[in-house]
Amino acid sequence: MDRIAQLEARLARLEDEREISRLIAAYGPLVDAGAAEDVAALWTEDGVYDVDEIYLEGREQLARMVRSSAHQGWISGGCAHFVGPPHVTVDGDTAIAVCHSLMVVYQDDRFVVRRATANHWALARTDAGWKVTRRTNRVLDGRAESPGLLRQGAYGEPAFL
């Protein structure tokens, strides 16, 4: 491969990583704003969001979660979903990303971390850009599967749960 082709390949990889990082960074502000359709649009049509206590499949279920009275209660009470910077591994038209997230809530006149979570993202390049195909979250409460998700993602491996 000549020097120009190498530079083009490196630039394409950086652009992919940047787009994926921006997609992941958009989740917190959008979900805290209650932007249900915009949150759902981060996923593919059949995308999955697998959280400890819930399993959502498809954009309609994702949007419904954001519109739910439980989620709206978090927003009206004061809530911030902070998603840390992701470690992204791109492999052609698919990618794996891993990061931490915190759910911070306003409670008793102060902010409290409600949960700290391991996040494993599987993504695919689509005609509309990068989209989430599966997001797997597990609370970092000492269970082995949570750091396992972080380890798998750091090595660009799919989630094995």
From TrEMBL:
Superkingdom of the source species: Bacteria
Coiled coil: none
Name of the featured protein: Nuclear transport factor 2 family protein
Record InterPro entries: NTF2-like_dom_sf, SnoaL-like
A Pfam family this chain is assigned to: SnoaL_4
Domain SnoaL-like stretches: 13-136
